[in-house]
Write a structure and sequence with these properties.
Elements: E1 3-7, E2 10-13, E3 18-25, E4 32-39, E5 46-52, E6 58-60, E7 68-73, E8 78-83, E9 92-100, H1 106-109, E10 117-118, E11 122-127
Parallel strand pairs: 2-11
Antiparallel strand pairs: 1-3, 3-8, 4-5, 4-9, 5-6, 7-8, 9-10, 9-11
Length: 128
């Protein structure tokens, strides 16, 4: 059973930065698609960024391209999301997710229904 534990959320002013971390354990497969999702109150969960552990290929939602960077430290089994130039629309609960296999496409990588394992979430609040 894969377990995911997020950390790094908090409150920040618009224009600021945060780095989220997700420590993973219990891997049984050699390749996973790992993604960050977010969900704001009253809104659907949306994919933010994804990375294939096998190839390192990355995928980003248009709303965060150029501002967010996803990365992974294989030695530490840790997924990161560096968030820069944060704005009010980035306020949400952020979730780490993993699913066996390749990300392959942006639709698969950023689609919440295709992911089997989820963390508990970490809150990000951006204020003006």
């Amino acid at each position: 059973q894969v377990q995911l534990v997020e950390s790094g959320g908090g409150s920040v002013q618009a224009g600021g930065s945060l780095r989220l971390s997700c420590v993973a354990s219990g891997y049984t497969r050699s390749t996973y698609c790992m993604s960050w999702f977010r969900q704001a109150p009253g809104k659907e969960r949306e994919g933010v960024a994804a990375i294939s552990t096998g190839t390192g290929s990355t995928y980003y939602a248009d709303s965060v391209k150029g501002r967010f960077t996803i990365s992974r430290d294989n030695a530490k089994n840790t997924l990161y999301l560096q968030m820069d130039a944060l704005n009010l629309d980035d306020t949400a609960m952020y979730y780490c997710a993993a699913d066996p296999g390749w990300c392959a496409t942006a639709v698969r990588a950023l689609g919440p229904k295709t992911f089997r394992y989820w963390g508990q979430g970490t809150q990000v609040t951006v204020s003006s």
